Amino acid sequence: MRPIKLFALLLAIVFTGYVEAQTPKKAKHRIVIDLAHKQIFWNDPAGVEGKDPSLVNRINYMTGEITKTANSVDAELVYIKDEIKPEQLTKGSLLFIHIPSGQYTPAEVSAVTKFISNGGSLFVVMDADYWSNLKQTNVNDLIRPFGIAFDGPNPDSLAGGSTKAGVITPKPLKISYHGARIVNGGTPFCFNIRTEKFPFGVYKEVKNGGKIIVMGDGMVSLYMTSWEGVDDYQCQEFMHDTFQWLLKR
After folding, report:
1. What's the whole-number mean pLDDT along residues 138-143?
2. Which range is the signal sequence, renumbered to this chain (predicted)?
3. How many domains does the chain contain in total?
4. Average pLDDT over residues 9-20
5. CATH classification of the domain holding 49
6. CB neighbours (10 Å) of residue 139?
């Protein structure tokens, strides 16, 4: 083979390999973040440009952290900014609902409950009434069919939480907590560090492989690693473990 042709062939091979190496692999899962129901904290970073710098910084921080979590479980992030529809909740998806303060329509409730019943996953968070109450949002309609419901304020409002080693977190994790809402039903795995009487995090696996995690406190899912002098809450580890379990099939 002539040297010039050999050089061209080698260059083509190298270039092809470079292109393939630089082409991002399509994620196996989707984390669908609900932004359509007056969410208190979460937002699309593209939608907060020009707003209060502290808000922008917070959204950028949380988005960066949940992107790390998504990458760790082979998932991409997708935002829902309008009514939730069945076609938005596809196989391999995890619906992420964090402290809504608006109402879900009957059609949305039907779409979400069917999604879970058919093997989909849901991570849903509420917090104390200070942020959103159960009159403002009918979020319980999404989870009540599966025997889980948010209840009133958690009597133990002091800071500090932890998980119990088990199905969700293989080892106990130190997680942020300060005031919360009781969660009834499911299998408890998140507790205040002083008592297991009032769990604020539960999980459930339903028929056909559907999975649910319900949290009555939003701090760990806001990636708040520091609170009241404690700087080592394991938020990223917690979110990785919960999302990994929810997406495992």
Report:
1. 98
2. 1-21
3. 1
4. 37
5. 3.40.50.880
6. 26
